[in-house]
Amino acid sequence: MRGVRHYPGFGAAAAACLVLLYAPLIVVTAYSFNASTSITAWGGFSWRWYVDVFTGPEAGRFGLAARNSLIIASVAATLATLIATAAAVAMIRGGAFRGRTVTYALINLPLLVPEMVIAVASLIFFTLIGLPPGLLTILIAHVTFCIPFAYLPIAARLSGIEPGFEAAARDLYASRWQAFRLVLLPLLGPGIVSGFLLAFIISLDDFIITNFVKGAGMETLPTAIYGSVKQGIKPNIMAISTLMLLTSIAFVTLSYAVNRIGQKTR
Amino acid sequence: MKRLVALAALIATPAFAEGELKLYNWFEYIPQELLDKFEAETGIDVTMDTYDSNEALLAALKAGKLGQYDLAVPGDYMVRIMADEGLLDTIAEGELANRGNIDPQWLDVPFDPGRRHSIPYQWGSTAFAVNRDVYQGDISTLGIIFDPPEELRGRINVLDSQGEVLTLGSIYLGIPQCTQDRAQLKALSDMLMAAKAHWASFGSDIAKDVLVSGDAAAGMIYNGFAAKARAEGANVEYAFPREGYVVWMDNVVLLKDAPNRANALKFMDFLLEPENAAAVTNYAAYAPGVLGTEPFLDPAITEAPENNPPEGQKGFFIEACDEATQRLYDAIWTNLKK
Amino acid sequence: MAGAGQPGAAGGAGPASGSGAEAVGYRRLVVPLLVPAWAVVGLFMVLPVALMVVYSFLTREFRGGVTWEFTLAAYDQFFVNRGLFGDEPPRLEWTYITIFWRSIWQAALATLLCLAIGFPTAWFIATRPRASRGVWLFLITIPYWVNLLIRTVSLRFILRDNGPLNEALLALGVISKPLGIINTDLAVQLGLFYSYLPFMVLPIYAAVERYDHRLSEAAADLHAGRWTILREIVIPAIRPGIVAGCILVFVPCLGAFLAPDLLGGARNFMIGSLIDEQFRGSQGNWPFGAACAVILMTMVLAVLIAQARAALRGAGR
After folding, report:
1. Which of A256, A263, B283, C293 is least surrounded, with the fewest CB atoms within 10 Å of its CB?
2. What is the model's pTM?
3. HEC letters along A2-66
């Protein structure tokens, strides 16, 4: 009986929700192809701002920022994924142990503490221990807040894998390491990949914390964009935004697809 | 794992060129081409961070950023404050080859007698600009900002800069700077609080854009920034109010504990070359403090109305107050911003 | 679980699961496996937050910087007003409380708006056929992963007086002069709502998906109306999902910085901008900024603890 599941207007709300979420993104994408220098008047379709992104006067600054962003996101996501994988194995396969609830809370802490508080705390911490702000401080902060994002899909995946597979391998005289590497890791793979990808996007996305702990001349894409936007939303920003938007979509799609494949092979 | 360690090592070590230079400058104040030129001439890698008010620069340096930068570009009164706070290094006799290029009128300045810590960068004025499509009336008074006409109410941007806002407010009320008279300070505070009700936004870096984009119809602004807004198509007029306006000179200072002191001096010499000083002026639309720039200057800049105040107008430098007085002004500003 | 790692969709990854440990023998490896996570989060998150609390009790130097002398000055500045020059009898300082209050009601309003549109959306998606559910969820998830700064900037671009929205409405003759939304509380509200809407949909969706629709059918058999069923049966049943969604929207809204900074103006200070001003702006008052952050964190903790206690009470019923 479909009747009780159907509520009038709910479909319209869902449609409105999609329109609201996508309209601004579509507008920005559309205006990134605006031939006019003026940001508001439409001057016909053009690729000129995309050319400008790579060859224009600000190409060097944004290129460097993009490089920094990619380095930070790769390293932070890799480290966060390693830490999260180890933690997930202990949490899901380690049985009951003292401090389990506390550990769970600890891992998820970066999700619960407001970003502004993390930013302030990190800045004070780095200043007190005398670590000069720069790549290293950004990296440390990013690894920390990426951990829960990497942890969630890995743990979700792991809790869906029967311990029986590894037990069978152990019964056949596989060492613990062999059972992990040859049995559990391949099964866990999709979760790890999707955790890595999400951590990567989260690192790429961060503005507030990076802006607090970055050092002299050290920009990531979001901080460079913010600095530029303050002095006016220029068409090249629209083009950069569209490129970042496409990157994010590509990564989420990838993460989603990996997870889907994983579910089928399970 | 090995690759990871290698990568970590790679990013932990700074890029090696002929050395580095860390510059802490105002936003939109130096053309990228000039930095590129310096890099090409010397092989020194320049990295730059920006700030948007003298007070923000001071706060950042005092909160632990000292030692990370070689050079900064504070305004006149802030040079004096920074020197008093012990944030500046001294340039020894003979360390700057191009010192002789400094315009004599900017050589022995009260904020840095004998130019021991600084060289001139650019000088200009701070008042306000009005969109003439929105308001056609008389704009020769600071009342436009502090007691705005109906058309401009709620459409005014004000610089996020304590020195400039409080000094322009004092000029408007006709009270001296660095006063300790409680009644005058109270009047200043009350006037600003009442005016704030008509302001849409506080921001220095956005000051030009809000005029160009139409988000604001009037705004407190620097003369060169107003000229750039006009050049970008905004129908704005920069005002020289009859009560007076702020005049300033920004200066390149050598910071204490500069990590690359020798390179910093090279950059100072570079900026004292007339051609390079002119390049900054042509970009930022203010006036240089160096002799011999005329052949390189863009006439559109030197002849701009923003750079040519009418005869008989009064410009005031912002004064550096003593600590007890400054605390009173800080209180007014904090109260205004919150 | 479709759409990996959405906030609040951790499902079976919670502390409740974890069986068969003996069989695979990770029991003795628990400590070494957890040390990296403990170390990183402990050293770079718990310790810094603790230091931040300490910092809020330090003395601010004239013009920035701190000295290691303990004082309540930062909290005094927050709560006590001694007049412009500090020589009047102390009274309650309303300024910062007002800023916090504005943040609270903006966050609460954004939460309500997100709930109003997020709940029907989540319900609608969860009642689609299985195949199209994934597509819907995917579409809702994508904007969440798009850079928040970019989303806020695009909203600023659209809402400004000569932006596409006003231009379109003017061209259509709906309005005769720009709406003047930018730099108002309304613009901030739209920004918050827009930024965190996906956070509301996902956990409610997860709850509705688990909801047993036979409960509704049974109620319908007893002649309960559609909306009565929703109010009396459905909402109590999926309440944990609704609460989770509300918290996921409310908490980040409370400390939001980009929306008030890029969409609000001089009169729309929120907690995030107040704190930012102390560290990156001209105030240079780190202890006061730290104190504001401590107060913000305390508020968030209070919300989370209240929710945890309510959840425990609910489980005990």
Report:
1. A263
2. 0.89
3. CHHHCCCCHHHHHHHHHHHHHHHHHHHHHHCCECCCCCCCCCCECCHHHHHHHHCCCHHHHHHHH
